[in-house]
Amino acid sequence: MDEPKLIAASDLPYPPVAVDGKNPAYAKAMLDNVGGANSEMSAISLYVYNNLRSGHTPDIAQTFHKVSIVEMHHLEIFGKLACMLGEDPRMWTQHGCKKAYWTPGYNQYPVHFPEMMRGVIAGENAAIKKYQYQASYIKDPNITALLERIILDEQLHVQIFEKMAREYCQ
């Protein structure tokens, strides 16, 4: 019998990527989702690393690969939103009056599986809290609908990683 295929994204459709108009404050928030310390770029790079580190266990490596693809879709959405809102969608964020480019130094690179799992679960939970906070103050219903949809994926990732931790960290 074949193993069930891992589903790494909610089965609900994503709302259209749209905005009500340019908004510098919202654009900066979306840029931080693209290239901040707690960002989709950070998640993607960490999951690629984790995939490579766990290659000796194909189902773990495949899980990181599939989740990273979903995160790439989120990165694309946030980049498009930043652009529509009036920002250049580079891999950067706003620190005071200056832009700071994304750096791989934002990530920690654990080599032991229990640490790896604690880190990815904490990162997904931090992303959920960040997106929930953004959805609470952003008044553009297009953006909040996308944030709420992306949160569903991040919550699924927490479930996936918690299950992996239970299975492999016992």
Automatic annotation (TrEMBL):
Gene3D superfamilies: 1.20.1260.10. Residues 39-164 form the Rubrerythrin diiron-binding domain. Transmembrane segments: none annotated. One of its GO terms (molecular function) is oxidoreductase activity. It comes from the Bacteria. Coiled coil: none annotated. Pfam families: Rubrerythrin (PF02915). This is CotJC protein. It comes from [Clostridium] asparagiforme DSM 15981. The gene is cotJC.
